[in-house]
Design goal:
single chain, about 1400 residues, alpha+beta, Jelly Rolls, Beta-galactosidase, Chain A, domain 5, GH92 mannosidase fold, nine-stranded antiparallel β-sheet, seven-stranded antiparallel β-sheet, 22 helices, 76 strands, globular, PNGase
Length: about 1400
């Protein structure tokens, strides 16, 4: 060889060929050889290795510069682009080795280059490690650069790649295997380690090589290599307890919205604790608290700016109620500037455990933290001989600080926050074991709570506690949790024991070190959340648990003093900090199986939110926030009730879920979105942002509520009347859960949203399931990932795809269609979930996002369970890698959600159908897993399971054959033995017709949810009192109807002479006094409207809440044409107030064959305008309807009646009437009602005639806007920043207004309060458009907001037509970046 490396065992250095010495990466064990490619560590460029045949080891790869065979290998300043790492540096130093080449051939190609000649003997424990960052072309979506590996050539002519050896992830350490494993992530550093001594002890390493081996081309190959280490005796930490395997920095090597490998922070805490304690690399951020690499300093070292008390549930919700502490050294008053006080460190100098965080900085200063529930002990070890200070600080000015140097006490308060609705003031109290020798405030140039204390000792201990009640309670919390004689080791050990008690529930055999780290670190994340929000106001012996109430939607904390909260203090234990959208699928079920007793307390702690504020928060941080879709605490807690989790108040739990599902919420922070309409439509219409996603979540939650109701009805001792109600509600919700069929578009073969009148979001010719968002239908998903969201009714879903085989085919296509991150749709640009999905390379499966977690398990519904086993095991192998360098997750971890999925999947169990009491069965990762459950140990054995043996061949449960793909919770919770037989090929296990999970829908049936027989043009409603009761059937619970008299009745006649078989009916209470609620009634049916049959009678019914919809079952339904609801006044009741009535059937609902549309017009008081009435025959027979036209009193219409003869199927006719407004008509819309009658049909159409003055102002989201909004093609409402609303449309979306121009108006102006990247078009017919305004520049956050005025005459001229109507369409001038047109108001002023 060219030169020989002299083995150096001193200080981790080595002599390089040519006599130069590299700057070696610091290591903790004995290092034989290493390089970080710093000055002097330069391998020869393009030196191709000699192959076993004596010829150059290269084929099909060319040097990018010279064109010679082989790779280019040069040292430079590192990658200039990386998803979550600092750029233009190496991994640990400032240099890295760049490899580059061109894979020229169309087939396989390879090249092996010599990096270094060495002379290193291999010992039994010798380990090779390195990091590599492959380049990636996002346009080409080419992963060629991941087919690389470091190799070793031995003096005996063999290579490491020839030997049977795997890296820490179980992947062979060959370039081809590394690439094909898909565990190397592009544009990210990837750590690899391999035990060389295991296969090559006694040999001598001759050369360090780099190999590229790609399966096909052509392709450009590019990447960077760093930190190659050969270590003879790598020092492994002692790991005797479960907590020893936890690494809390996992998930921190992320970049917020760019690319997530967890988006976590290293929280030191106790399980479900009140506080987190964490190092902070950006003390000014409430989002990313700790950046593993991206924020490194100019020396490429991470820096800590503070240690903090944190309460962050997610970077997307932000931190809150923070306090910061930062030790520093130096003479005089310390500098509190964040950059000045920041201290550099290396990750190998960190202790990152759940019970103990510690770090030694480059300057020798050390900090250690040990947690309790409400408190912590800090230990600061200062270098000798320098000034010793502790800076006290916080994020911003919403804080206070008091320093009492004489008593050695600091205290303060904090209201720091981002979205944290409901949050109240938090208080802090801290003491020190050393005298404060100097102190003061450092507010100048900092924050009002910035101060410092100084000491004259090298080691100082701080004891600190927090409280939501006040400073005195914080002091009490400190005294209760850390005794005066407690040492730092005592606090560490108590926290460690608490974690071991939780983590030790799972014990596994046959796991690698990496798998054990993943297992116990995932359990740590699972048990870290949710968090206690209560405190002991009593004594240790006689505790009294109370809490500051944070269950509200207020963005402003209640006024509080510097020492005591102004919030209400209530009894009980409350819990906060979880996003149910993320956690309900796997995290909560994992809790219920692994830790049922703590889980019961957690559930009741969230139900306490309902007791405190009337609702459970959809996303608790800590109060009420509806950040994502769904009220999925319904599913999570129903699952707990069905499984019999102890410690739950089932009545309150059910009441909270029932309220979510049946009561119109008071605001947008709680309850279900748009419930005032969607409850009656059966889906959330697409004029609501992510309305489709709200619909699907609603069906899942309805199924769970129904199951909970049934479980409660079966409980012994349930009173008969309550049992009847619960069973009615159980069936009602079970049928409601089949409503997903109503948002399945058969024309495209996928699910999507639709408008209130049934128009699909995207027409078939434009629909592409790869497009994310689909005009804001989908939440962080595309059509593919929303194609299987019916895990509660897999058979029903299969029927939509043609049966079980059709569902399997759909899943096959899903996994075979690659995600490219090139179809961002209504997101306007690539979001991190798209990149993460793409790079896992599991087809369209967006495994990094919770909404898709269940999808591979749907194969169990198809009698092809081996496919679920394959795809889940692939995800387990690819997604949870990189724990050694702060990665470890395939995307956002989110409160234990992704960890819970991994835990359950690795055990071979998954909670596919929540609240069914069952798990579906998969492929266990471990040869043996023992779950130490309260009911007995559950042993899951899978001898021989491996990456090669992933398929279940058979299963016995306690020795008995088990052929079903499901198993009950009771079977698991009581302990037992599940023994799997595993093999390398799919088997017939679980393929029987009856082996699939249960479903709501039977085989061969199509899902048949309940639909309302009533509604517009489905029939005619009248009241015995003669009052207008149409509001009872308008699918809107915001409208109320009052009936007077002792026994008023409402009669409904089904249109067209049809009959309807009503199985359920609902009554919705109004906002009126509860004494006006109906309590006694009779529902009757009739064929002829004369002879009536009693169908259902109720007495003593009550409505628990205002705006509540209650279902009632007809015990023996029959088909009738006429229905009558007779309200029975008792106790003198003569006024009845209702919001809505439904008659529900599972049969087809009659639809009118005639559509009547009244075109809106505008006119001034006392003037006349033509109104067009358009009739369209959508049926299959001739129609000859008689028409009557009704206008407001004092108005006139001519003609008021007429007839259209022989309207053929598919044809339309227009009738024009002249409407004259009253001279004193008030401004605003006035109804024009057209009624068409023929045969047994009565059909109406209603339009508005808008009375306008010279000036009309329209604000988005108001009834006035609804009157002129004629097309809403994917637009959404948002806040305007001043308490009102704005409408926006991005990407391909737009919204169109028909301007309310009064008849005869010829001149005037239109003024738009508009912003962002707007595109404004004008038209006089709504079809042919001309652009009149366009923002050409990239604009965000309404920075260009202003009033733009357009002349009406000019608009008409530009539109090229002098017609009366004028349309404005607002869209996106730059559809690629997601900041489309934004409108806060429109002002129309006419002068002619």
């Amino acid at each position: 060889m060219i030169g020989s490396l002299v083995l150096a065992l001193v200080a981790g250095s080595a002599t390089m060929p040519g006599g130069t010495a590299p700057t070696a990466r610091a290591t903790t064990g004995q290092t034989d050889w290493s390089t970080s490619f710093e000055d002097g560590a330069r391998p020869a460029d393009g030196q191709v290795a000699t192959g076993p045949d004596g010829r150059p080891d290269v084929a099909g790869v060319l040097h990018p510069d010279s064109g010679a065979p082989g790779l280019s290998t040069v040292v430079d300043d590192g990658p200039d682009r990386a998803y979550a790492a600092k750029t233009d540096v190496g991994f640990t130093g400032t240099r890295a080795l760049r490899y580059a080449g061109r894979h020229e051939s169309g087939g396989p190609a390879h090249s092996t280059n010599v990096l270094f000649d060495v002379d290193v003997p291999v010992r039994p424990e010798t380990e090779l490690s390195y990091v590599v960052l492959p380049w990636f072309d996002e346009e080409a979506v080419d992963y060629a650069s991941t087919h690389v590996a470091v190799d070793l050539a031995f003096t005996d002519g063999t290579r490491l790649s020839d030997l049977d050896v795997e890296d820490q992830n179980g992947v062979p350490i060959t370039a081809r295997a590394q690439g094909e494993s898909r565990t190397l992530y592009p544009l990210q550093w990837n750590h690899r380690s391999v035990s060389v001594g295991q296969v090559a002890a006694g040999r001598t390493i001759d050369q360090v090589l780099l190999t590229y081996d790609g399966p096909d081309g052509s392709a450009d190959v590019l990447g960077w290599l760093d930190d190659i280490v050969l270590e003879a005796e790598p020092r492994e930490p002692e790991r005797s307890r479960p907590s020893d395997w936890v690494v809390t920095t996992r998930g921190t090597h992320s970049n917020g919205g760019g690319y997530s490998r967890g988006n976590n922070f290293p929280a030191t805490a106790v399980p479900n604790g009140f506080n987190f304690w964490t190092p902070v690399t950006d003390a000014g951020s409430l989002a990313t608290l700790y950046s593993y690499h991206e924020a490194n300093n100019e020396r490429n070292l991470p820096e800590i700016e503070a240690f903090a008390a944190s309460h962050q549930p997610s970077i997307w919700l932000g931190d809150r109620q923070t306090f910061q502490f930062m030790p520093t050294v130096g003479e005089g008053v310390p500098d509190a500037d964040r950059d000045a006080r920041a201290l550099a460190f290396r990750h190998e100098d960190e202790t990152a455990s759940p019970h103990h965080y510690g770090v030694t900085f480059q300057n020798g200063l050390r900090t250690d933290i040990a947690p309790t529930d409400h408190a912590a002990m800090f230990r600061f070890t200062f270098p000798a001989g320098e000034g010793r200070h502790l800076i006290l600080d916080n994020i911003d000015e919403r804080t206070g600080l008091t320093i009492d140097a004489e008593k050695g006490v600091v205290s303060g308060w904090s209201e720091t926050r981002v979205i944290s609705t409901g949050m109240t003031r938090m208080y802090m109290y801290a003491t020190f074991d050393a005298e404060i020798v100097a102190s003061g405030m450092l507010t100048e140039g900092n924050r009002p709570s910035t101060g410092y204390v100084s000491f004259d000792r090298d080691v100082v201990t701080m004891r600190v506690a927090t409280s939501l009640i006040g400073v005195d309670q914080a002091k009490k919390n400190l005294e209760l949790e850390i005794a005066a004689d407690d040492s730092f080791a005592d606090v560490v050990e108590r926290a460690r024991t608490a974690w071991d008690d939780r983590l030790g529930v799972v014990e596994v055999d046959g796991a690698s070190d990496a798998q054990l780290t993943t297992l116990y670190s995932n359990l740590y994340r699972l048990f870290l959340y949710p968090n206690s929000g209560y405190e002991n106001t009593g004594t240790r012996e006689r505790p009294r648990y109370r809490h500051a109430v944070q269950s509200s939607d207020s963005f402003s904390p209640p006024p509080s003093s510097p020492t005591h909260t102004g919030a209400e203090i209530a009894d009980g234990k409350v819990y906060v900090n979880t996003g149910f959208w993320d956690t309900f699928r796997a995290a909560w079920p994992a809790y219920f199986l692994l830790a049922p007793e703590p889980a019961g307390e957690l559930v009741d702690g969230f139900v306490q939110q309902y007791r405190d504020g009337g609702w459970i928060s959809p996303w608790s941080s800590p109060g009420y926030a509806r950040v994502m879709t769904g009220t999925s605490s319904d599913s999570a807690f129903a699952d707990a009730v069905v499984k019999g989790v102890p410690g739950i108040d089932a009545e309150d739990t059910y009441a909270a879920a029932l309220k979510n599902a049946t009561v119109r919420p008071p605001n947008d922070s709680v309850g279900r979105s748009d419930l005032d309409r969607s409850l009656f439509l059966g889906y959330v219409p697409n004029d609501v942002s992510t309305g489709f996603a709200w619909s699907l979540d609603g069906y899942l939650n309805d199924f769970a509520i129904g199951a909970m109701a049934e479980a409660m009805a079966r409980r012994p001792g349930t009173p008969g009347r309550e049992r009847k109600r619960l069973r009615e509600e159980a069936e009602y919700f079970r049928l409601r859960s089949q409503g997903y069929v109503d948002v399945f578009d058969p024309a495209v073969g996928f699910f999507q949203g639709k408008s209130a009148d049934g128009v699909w979001t995207t027409p078939p010719e434009r629909y592409d399931p790869r497009v994310w968002g689909n005009d804001h239908d989908y939440t962080e998903a595309n059509g593919w990932n929303e194609a299987f969201t019916a895990p509660h009714d897999g058979q029903g879903l299969a029927e939509l795809y043609g049966g079980r085989a059709g569902l399997a085919d759909k899943l096959d296509e899903f996994f075979a269609t690659p995600e490219t991150a090139r179809f961002p749709g209504s997101y306007g640009g690539v979001i991190h979930e798209m990149r993460e999905t793409r790079d896992l390379r599991l087809g369209q499966w967006s495994m990094p996002n919770q909404v898709s977690h269940h999808i591979p398990w749907m194969y169990n519904y198809t009698q092809e369970p081996w496919k679920a086993q394959y795809h889940v095991r692939q995800a387990l192998a690819r997604g949870w890698v990189g724990s050694e360098i702060g990665q470890g997750y395939p995307g956002d971890e989110d409160n234990g959600a992704t960890s819970g999925w991994w835990i359950m999947s690795a055990l071979g169990l998954y909670p596919l159908q929540l609240a069914s009491g069952e798990y579906t069965i998969g492929s266990p990762l471990f040869e043996k897993a023992t779950l130490h459950l309260p009911g007995g140990s559950l042993v899951i054995e899978a001898p021989g399971t491996s990456d090669g043996n992933i398929y279940v061949q058979g299963l016995t449960v306690d020795g008995h054959p088990h052929t079903s793909t499901t198993i009950s919770h009771d079977e698991l919770a009581d302990g037992g033995v599940l023994r799997f037989t595993m093999g390398p090929e799919p088997s017939s296990w679980g393929t029987g017709a009856n082996a699939v999970p249960g479903s709501v829908t039977e085989v061969g049936d199509r899902p048949r949810p309940l639909h309302d027989v009533t509604g517009k043009n489905r029939g005619l409603v009248t009241a015995s009192t003669g009052e207008d009761v149409s509001g009872l059937l308008d699918d809107d619970s915001r409208t109320a109807t009052v009936l007077t008299g002792h026994h008023p009745s409402v009669r409904y006649t089904v249109n067209g002479g049809d009959r309807a078989r009503v199985e359920f009916y609902t009554i919705t209470s109004s906002q009126a006094d509860p004494r006006q609620d109906p309590g006694h009634w009779v529902l009757e049916g009739s064929d002829d409207g004369k002879r009536w049959q009693t169908l259902d009678r109720r007495n003593g019914e009550e409505f628990r809440w205002r705006d509540q919809t209650r279902p009632f079952k007809i015990r023996k339904p029959v088909s009738m044409r006429h229905y009558r609801l007779r309200l029975l006044g008792t106790g003198g009741q003569s006024t009845f107030s209702l919001a809505e009535v439904e008659l529900l059937t599972r049969d087809a609902v009659p639809e009118s064959p005639l559509r009547v549309r009244v075109d809106p017009v505008a006119l001034r008081p006392g003037t006349t305008a033509p109104v067009d009435v358009r009739l369209t025959n959508t049926g299959d027979t001739l129609l000859s309807p008689e028409l009557t036209v009704a206008v407001p009193a004092s108005w006139a219409v001519d003609p008021a009646a007429g007839m259209v003869s022989d309207l053929a199927p598919g044809d339309s006719a227009t009738v024009t009437v002249e409407v004259t407004a009253a001279a004193d008509a008030a401004p605003g819309p006035h109804p024009v009602l057209v009624t068409a009658r023929w045969d047994d049909w009565v059909v109406t159409g209603e339009g508005d005639v808008r009375v306008v003055g010279d000036v009309t102002e329209i604000e988005p989201g108001t009834p006035d806007e609804r009157d002129i909004l004629v097309a809403d093609d994917g637009s959404q409402l948002t806040g305007d920043g001043a308490g009102g609303q704005a409408r926006f449309a991005d990407a391909t979306g737009s919204f169109t207004y028909r301007l309310p121009l009064p008849a005869g108006a010829t001149s005037g102006t239109v003024t738009l309060d508009i912003a962002n990247e707007f595109l404004v078009d004008v038209s006089t017919d709504g079809r042919n458009w001309t652009t009149v305004l366009r923002e050409p520049n990239a604009v965000m956050f309404q920075s260009n907001r202003g009033q733009r005025t357009l002349d009406l005459a000019d608009l008409r001229e530009q539109a090229g037509d002098a017609g009366q109507e004028l349309y404005l369409r607002i869209g996106d001038s730059r559809p690629a970046d997601g900041w489309g047109g934004w409108l806060a108001g429109l002002r129309l002023e006419t002068t002619g």
